[in-house]
Amino acid sequence: MDTRLRIGDLVCLRVDESRYGPVIEILSPAGGHARYRVFHSAGEIREYYEDQLLPYVARNNERTVMEMLTNDEAGLDADTFRARLTASRLNHPWIDQLYALHAARIRFVPFQLKPLLRFLHAEQPRLLIADEVGVGKTIEAGLILRELQSRQQVGNVLIVCPKALVSKWRAEMLRFDEDFLPLNSETLRYCLREA
């Protein structure tokens, strides 16, 4: 079967052009459709059908940090350098900085920041917060939510907790200026059907 892509071609997902990587293997076709294995990162190598991929074209505003910090002239003045460095940090948030550290009305306890740091350093960020009662799960979840919101657009958030804790979670999330709508089983089923 003749394939449109070759090994080494840089491709992106049709549904999310920010997710890109090189084709590392041409797989055997399935159902008459060409398939490829794409390298996204060391922990994420995925298989896609050809119609899920597009050739990746770097956008004009995607430049490396060094390209943003330097230009063809002899040098930059300090204000321009700081402005470009700030722009670079905003375009590519670094994991060693917390952007939303003081974005809530809480008293910080150092161990409550550990789940957030673990989440930020993860190759594939997923985290289950399951501590003893009163240790600060709501604070940890709120810190993670606020940090994610400062780094990227966060669409929908669903907090699953026992019915007896719904009002507590809602009140705690107000500290982070988040007003969650409590759902019962009927309204949750309705939301899932609509989504």
Describe the structure.
With 195 residues, this protein is an alpha+beta fold. The chain has helices at 65-69, 78-91, 114-121, 137-151, 166-174, 185-194, and strands at 10-13, 20-30, 33-41, 44-49, 53-55. The model has no long low-confidence stretch (mean pLDDT 79).
List key phrases describing it.
single chain; 195 residues; alpha+beta; five-stranded antiparallel beta sheet; 6 helices; 5 strands; 17% strand
Short description:
With 195 residues, this protein is an alpha+beta fold.
Give the secondary structure arrangement, pairings included.
Blueprint: E1 10-13, E2 20-30, E3 33-41, E4 44-49, E5 53-55, H1 65-69, H2 78-91, H3 114-121, H4 137-151, H5 166-174, H6 185-194
Antiparallel strand pairs: 1-2, 1-5, 2-3, 3-4
Helix pairs in contact: 3-4
